[in-house]
Design goal:
By secondary structure, the chain is of the alpha/beta class. It has one domain: Spore Coat Polysaccharide Biosynthesis Protein SpsA, Chain A (Alpha-Beta Complex). Helices cover about 35% and strands about 20% of the residues. Strands 3-2-1-4-6-5-7 form a seven-stranded mixed sheet, with helices on both faces. A hairpin with a 5-residue loop joins strand 5 and strand 6.
Amino acid sequence: MTNEVVIRTVSEDCLCIFTRAPELGRVKQRLALTLGDAGALAAHEELLRRTLDQTASPGTYRMEVWLTRLDISLPGWLQSGAFELREQGSGDLGQRMQETLAAALATSRRCVLIGSDCPDIDSAYVAAAFKALADADVVFGPAEDGGYGLVGLSRPVPELFAESRWGDEGVLRRALARLQGAGISAALLPEIYDVDELADWQRYERGKRVPQSQ
């Protein structure tokens, strides 16, 4: 038996899209109250496909899609080969994001994590995040609801995910306070919105009808 030497290639940047697997009754629960389970699933899939299309930038950074489950039948467009499919670990949101970013940093110098429900995020926004990480330890894409739709790291920062109240309007404010207290530098990108409520979905639908030239 011979000893096998495994050489791991470290790429410059990695984009992780962190989202739920497209399962009926398990996505967009607040939208499902008005759109129904089938409508909520259709909305989730549309937003995810839009995110994949808008953030694709071959040769600029590699893409990984982190789903809550991989042991289900996935649509063909999620198996295109343009990105690697990965399965999220267990634990609360912070633990799962921390594990995802740690895995990405093991083979990348910088990594950015986004959700699939922020229509404002495109390849230019992601590129701006990676650029900010040249000078900062952490970068955020602040969301209008007080959270963030993008977070990126240039090194492991476990302090970032010491959060017990995910989902309220103080998530980003508390994260920035923890980082400042630990002497960790952070950069902020322009504010974005995410699609959670019916009003957000209607806003997204209106935006699709605006001509690209405007």
